[in-house]
Amino acid sequence: MSPHQEPHATITIDQEAALASGAERLTREFDGTFGRETIDRFLHASYTDLAQRATVPNYLPLLTEKFARQRLRALAKVDGLHVDGKPTVLFLCVHNAGRSQMALGFFQHHAGEHAVGWSGGSEPGHEVSPVAVEVMAERGIDIAGEYPKPWTDEVVRAADVVITMGCGDACPVFPGKRYEEWTLPDPAGWTPEGVRPVRDEIEARVLNLLAELGVPART
Fold first, then answer.
1. Quick one: 84-219 is in which CATH superfamily?
2. Which of 32, 184, 194, 219 could lock onto 190 through a cystine, CB 3.0 to 4.6 A?
3. CB of 166 within 8 A of CB of 184?
4. Same fold across 1-83 and 84-219
5. Among 131, 128, 60, CA closest to 100
6. Which residues pair with 92 in a beta bridge?
7. Are the CB atoms for 77 and 153 separated by under 8 Å?
8. In CATH terms, is domain 1-83 a member of 3.40.50.300?
């Protein structure tokens, strides 16, 4: 959904109040970059995108603010309003519930503050796979607070590298970007024993990608 469209999701009074608080925080954070009207558009569009598949409505305003912040940062980079020189990598799969979330977890863990990582899905699921959360926790990486979300144009356009994992023709393609397909099985519904080899392969690929980008990997 475009941030210029009106939202269609139902918003309760409490959620509206929480979104208003989020808008205030985003307005302060992006002061001098985006005005309140732009922030409100992105916030409500993000709410609509997430509300379609939310399983815990009470967390929606918090997740919405997080998603809107990501999108606004991406837009600032696309528009040349914020350039920090850090490479940005976007991990995409179908449901944004397993492979792309594990890849993002490893990327953020190993890259630290030296690079920016995002993730998304062509058909986002309702929650991050509990098994993916479990096997990543075994490596000391907590992805329990992540959530499936759709990719958006500004996020793809802001990425320097787009890593796709099985989303095929549904994955977005923009000229001039580096695209790389990681052929990995979809571990949805698998046991931890089955997912661990996929997890380890993802980490190896993430470390190789960081080396190619010249980003020092922390252990």
1. Response regulator (3.40.50.2300)
2. 194
3. yes
4. no
5. 128
6. 120, 164
7. no
8. no
- What is the DSSP code (8-state) at residue 150? B
| Tens-place pLDDT, residues 161-218 | 999 999 888 888 888 889 999 999 999 899 999 999 999 999 999 999 999 999 999 8
Alpha carbons within 13 angstroms on the beta-carbon side of residue 142 total 2
Q: How far does the chain reach from its first CA to its final CA, in angstroms?
A: 38
In the chain, where the domains are located: 1-83, 84-219
107/75 Cα distance (integer angstroms): 22
Report pLDDT for 7. 42
Q: Compute, in degrees rounded to 10, the torsion defined by CA atoms 208, 148, 133, 102.
A: 0
**The pLDDT value given to residue 59:** 83
pLDDT tens for each residue of 88-107: 999 999 999 999 999 999 99
Over the stretch 23-56, which tens digit does the pLDDT of each residue have?
Answer: 999 999 999 999 999 999 999 999 998 987 766 6
